[in-house]
Amino acid sequence: MKKHILWMLAVTVTASVMIMTSCSDDDDSTGRSLDVVEQQLQQMSLRDKVGQMFYVRPEVLDTTIHGNLVEVSLQEVNDRMRTMSEDYPVGGVILYAHNISDEAQLARFIPQIRSLGGNPLLCIDEEGGRVARIANNPNFNVEKFESMDAIGQTHDSGKAYYCGHTIGTYLKQYGFDIDFAPVADVNTNPENIVIGKRAFSDDPEVASAMVVGYLHGLQDTGIIGCIKHFPGHGDTKADTHYGYAQSMKTWDEMRSCEMKTFMAGIGWGVQLIMTAHIAVPNVTGSDVPSTMSSYILQDKLRGELGYQNIIITDAMEMGAITQQYTSAEAAVGCIKAGVDIVLGPQNFVEAFDAVVDAVKAGTISEERINQSVRRILLMKHKINNNI
Hints:
With 387 residues, the protein is an alpha/beta fold. It has helices spanning 2-20, 23-42, 46-52, 79-87, 103-114, 148-152, 157-174, 204-219, 251-255, 258-268, 281-284, 294-304, 319-322, 327-337, 348-361, 366-384, and strands spanning 54-56, 92-95, 121-124, 126-128, 131-132, 178-179, 224-230, 272-275, 310-312, 342-343. The chain has one domain (2-384): Glycoside hydrolase, family 3, N-terminal domain (TIM Barrel).
């Protein structure tokens, strides 16, 4: 009980500090940050800009690795990767369980990654529960959480804050910048095989409070959180890792359920929203995955919900994308739809070259690229300067 009271006090104190901070100070800081970003943008080549829009597995930078990348336990940067990153810089690198053996190896690996072209940020899926690359590794002595569902059942957002703060604390200690968590889906379909207990609740009001608490906990440790999977993966049956999945809800139905958690996160100020590769035919009138839909990303997420920060895809190597599109088609298509960051393309070189070629051909304007890169550089500037 004492520990819980301390965490609630931390929330209260943080909120009070935010309220007492003057708007003019915030405006001045944001203005200076935007000036720095604009100067940096003007000095970047097209390849530098495009590189910032790709967050990848480390394996794709080693040209000798082919086939199933999950079967390769790459745990250090080699010369091939360094050479590759000179021509193909990246904005971020995501580590999976097979990239991490123990604390000593991770302490060597992360500085090596940071030295690659593009000054990449370090990302991980560390939700807590069954998706936790570090907590589920027996070589790490960190607190484990049963599931987000178990936290949601308490109806106590302070416990969600504690979870986010605990995870953020050890991620920051190990050198990460971004946690692709929490799950903001509302788990309304008992036949759902991919979300389940990763979600906080089947009640959008409960899930909303938990999502904000978790995000706040991460923020207070200096870790950027990311809510997923927009526009909501909780009412699907199929798993987009392996193929096509859909929700048959209308937009009005989603507004009264799934959108509540995303709107709560947007209202709080979330910096990253991850797209789902699910189709919503009763919203879009087509079977196009939401990741590739400008109607979902531009008209709904940015237009109707007012979201202004970074949109990142779920991994583009997932079956829901690769069974319908080449890596080139997927990368160009999702950027045209409004995505800022392309996560985990199946063929990174093909995807990167396709985006560069699309800009040169006028299929995508360079100003469209600049819009995304400004958002990405602003986030990086805030991370690097603890803003």
